[in-house]
Amino acid sequence: MTGLGVPGILLLLGQSALRNESGTIAVQMIVTEEAKHGHDIPALKQEDVSAYERKDRLKVQEFVPLGDSALDLVVLLDDASDTNLGSQFSDLRQFIQAQPSATQIGIAYMRNGTFDMVQSLTSDHSHASSTLRLPLSSGGAMASPYLSLSDLVRRWPGKSGRREVVMVTSGVDPLGGLGAIDPYLDNSINDAQRGRVVVYTIYTPAGGHSGHSFFRLNWAQNHLAQLSEETGGEACMLGFGAPVAFAPWLDEITEHLKHQYNVTFLIKPAQKAGFRTVRLSTEVPNADLVAASKVYVPAAQ
């Protein structure tokens, strides 16, 4: 694959791999660089990054800083949230309006296992922020939030290959059962990994009984953490109560978006398409890399 500039390097859903004459496939991942506590984020170059599948080192073909390049960003709020979520709207509006002009922002609400796009992706951030509304805060709106996320990923409303979600929810899934295994969560992680969608989660209590059921909330927060960890995002929560302010978390997400790279590496395809576990690392002091735990690789042809 020849070198591509930032506008062209990101590929659309289902097109994240290109075949080479060597029998390998060029696969892309979004990686976020973090600094270790108390340090500035160092600049990275292609030779600073290594990719591994188990013990096998993969060739890193390209490493492109994304910075303020084109981005589809959907703020996805749970319609089953407590109406106290409205107290966070000022922070959410500031976050939306602070994003770069190349970022297209959409506002959507999770309800009944799907999503209601109240504002399509737009570069008019002020208008997007004005479309925030109070959640219904009704048990009738509560299906699996992970079904809603999967629906969004599968029917992504934008055209950019760089796709990210800020998902505001309690994480409580009345359809997925009460325990460690939730098939809807697993499916949403697979959908996000296959679509190369990074998911940030922010905990906010649900309305009604689900908002104060310790057993439900404990598993729900574990599931939100798993979702973000496995898609390359970050989970934001502080206990089971409503957070005082979203601002510190939203500021952290903004910093993450500024320090992302598109990594292209070569991998040998198997006879069947599927997910492969790939690990990215760097030896640059004080730098940490955060990425999805798996990448989807098409079958050999």
How do the helices and strands line up, and which of them pair or pack?
Layout: H1 6-9, E1 17-19, E2 25-35, E3 49-53, E4 56-58, E5 60-65, E6 71-78, H2 89-97, E7 103-111, E8 114-122, H3 125-130, H4 145-154, E9 163-169, H5 183-195, E10 197-203, H6 214-231, E11 235-236, H7 247-258, E12 260-267, E13 274-277, E14 279-282, E15 287-291, E16 294-297
Parallel strand pairs: 6-7, 6-9, 9-10, 10-11
Antiparallel strand pairs: 1-2, 2-12, 2-15, 3-4, 3-14, 5-12, 7-8, 13-16
Helix pairs in contact: 4-5, 5-6
Indicate the CATH architecture of the largest domain.
Answer: 3-Layer(aba) Sandwich
Q: What is the number of domains?
A: 2
- Span of the ends, CA to CA: 17 Å
Helical content stands at 10-25%
Please explain how this structure is put together.
Helix 4 packs parallel to helix 5 and helix 5 (183-195) packs parallel to helix 6 (214-231). By secondary structure, this protein is an alpha/beta fold. The protein has seven helices and 16 strands. Mean pLDDT is 89; it is low at 1-15. Helix 5 links the parallel strand 9 (163-169) and strand 10 (197-203). Helix content is 24%, strand content 32%. The chain has helices at residues 6-9, 89-97, 125-130, 145-154, 183-195, 214-231, 247-258, and strands at residues 17-19, 25-35, 49-53, 56-58, 60-65, 71-78, 103-111, 114-122, 163-169, 197-203, 235-236, 260-267, 274-277, 279-282, 287-291, 294-297. The chain folds into two domains: 6-67 and 260-297; 71-257, von Willebrand factor, type A domain (Rossmann fold, 3-Layer(aba) Sandwich). The chain has a six-stranded mixed sheet. Strands 1, 2, 5, 12 and 15 form a five-stranded antiparallel sheet that branches. The two termini are 17 Å apart.
